[in-house]
Every structure is written in structure tokens, then in C-alpha cells.
Amino acid sequence: MEIIDNSGSQAGVHSINSFGLFVPDIDEAQRFTEAFGLDVTRSGDELQLRTFGDAHVWATVLPASRKALAYLSLGCYAEDFDEIGRQVIAAGGRAAQAPAYGDAGGFWFHDPDGNLLQLCVARKRMPDGKAELADRSVPPGIQGACFRSTAPKVHPTRLAHMLLFTGDMPRTVAFYERGLGVRVADRSGNIVAFTYARHGCDHHLIAFATSEHGRGLHHTAWDVPGIEGVGLGAEQMRNAGYTRNWGVGRHVLGSNYFDYVRDSFGSWWEYSAHIDYIPKGIEWQGGDRNPEDSLYLWGPSLPEDFVDNSERHPRQ
Ligand SMILES: [Fe+2]
After folding, report:
1. Distance of CA 202 from the midpoint of ligand 1 (Å)
2. 219 alpha carbon – ligand 1 mean position (Å)
3. Which residues surround ligand 1, an ion (CB under 5 A)?
4. pTM, two decimal places
5. Separation CA 219–CA 302 (nearest Å)
6. What CATH architecture applies to the domain 15-126+156-293?
7. How many Cβ atoms are within 10 Å of 56's Cβ, its own excluded?
8. For 178-224, how does the pLDDT look when each residue is reduced to its tens digit (9 = 90+)?
9. pLDDT top residue among 131 and 71
């Protein structure tokens, strides 16, 4: 297959390294993230979120008066760091001071929407290939389902992607393409756009949805090994009292099976399984899709508040 680079950038990030999240109630955030199946460590009024069996801190949850994305840290290879930094400035990024709550290293900047980002040299967290779907049939004569009373707790294996609201889709997509070297896999006009990293990546790493209120965190997605994990995850959150969800269903763009659970602060947390994968060197044959073909193939009706941006920031 022909290798094409139409992003206009010379270098690109490979992974989401971590993110920071402001919430108005740390106790509640701890209850939610533990119920979700993450490995949560509390230090004073801060939470560190890991996936079990991995020392990497995917997220830091910090106290604040309102829910908001505190920062997004993107990882790159050492040889690409300087070039991406130059691309970010050339594309309109504004250099920023490292915040007191963040890692002082790397290159901190604001994107055109006002999000605080960090570029850092980091291990590639995005897998190098597509995982096998864990769901398996069993031979005749054997019960395939486990008992409800002994259902295992679902523990996501990694942070998969994020969806951010933007007040200006064309400006934002152009910035992330030219500055950070991601590419658009698929989009639906200026409603939603899905971008992927060039070094071998899920169908989307960072997605954007237009909001009249500008920037904001819509959801973070966490990978589970199969449809059973998505369904059991939805069930464990219902049992924990988190009944506002959307799923189980299957997306069209990305093809992943999903269940979204809304936290108490207006963010959604997605269990995601079997998302499409774009190998390194392959240009995804995506396009501009009708809205009807952009959201889901099957699943429950969309909750009315699913695309509400609960954050309110000054427009940039
Ligand atoms: Fe998602």
C-alpha cells in the first residue's frame, strides 16, 4: 500500500502519555474510578490512576471548584521531540509554564482552544498491533457464561483514547495535524473528527467534537479485551450505583464495542473493545461520513445529554 503523508508535518507524537483532571469532589472521583476498575492511589487530595499490573500513571485527579481537563501529556520519540516542538509553535501553539501539579519536564504549551498540553519523550504506550478479541466460543456440552455471582471484576488494561470538545473544529484539526503530526482517520463534517498517530495506532487517539461552549473533556476510553468485558463493565458500574450510561453498542467509526458511564461531574468513561487499528506506514482510507453513519451501528438510543459540554471556559 502506498505510504502517504498529507499532514504537512514532519514528525508526530505516538501516544497519550497521561492526563490531568480537575474535579470538585475527590472522594466521589475515587469511588467512581475504583468502581470502574482502575488501580487508584490517593495521596492527600490527589488521585493517581493506573491500570492494574502496570506502574504507569495514566491520570492524575486534582481538586478544583469545577470539573475540567487539567492537562494532556502526549508522548513522542526522543529524535522527534525538537521537531514537534517547532511544529507546535509554527502551527500556533503558545509556550506555557509547567503547572505546579504537572511533571516539570518536556515542553508545555496551549493549543488554540486553550487546552494545556505537554509534549514529552516517553515510552510508546499505544500498542504496536491490534489485539485479538478475547471473546471465545466454547465447545458444545460446556456452559459458556460464568455465573453472575462469580462474575470477575473488569479491569481495563490501558487508556485508549480521549474525545475533546472544541469551539473551532477546522482550527483545531489543522493545529493537531500540523503541530503534533496526527492524521484524520474519519470525520463527519465539523461535528466530529477522529485523529490517529502515525507510528501504529488505534483508529483514534484524540477525537474532537464541536461545542458552542468551546473546549472541554467529553470522555476518556479504556481498553478491555472483549465484548464480555464491555458488558460486565457496564454491569459493575450499574451495581455500584452509576446508572447513567450509553451502551452496550458498537461504533461505526473505529468499530469498537462500547459502554459509556457518566461520572458525577459530567465526564463519560468508556469501556472500549476491539477498535480498528492503523499500522505504521498505512494511510487509513477514511472519509467525511454522514452523521447517521458516524456514531453507532447498534445500541441503545443516544442519551439526550451525551454530547453536552459541562465545562464552561472563556472562548479562545
Ligand atoms: Fe470513545
Report:
1. 11
2. 7
3. 221, 270
4. 0.95
5. 15
6. Roll (3.10)
7. 14
8. 999 999 999 999 999 999 999 999 999 999 999 999 999 999 999 99
9. 71
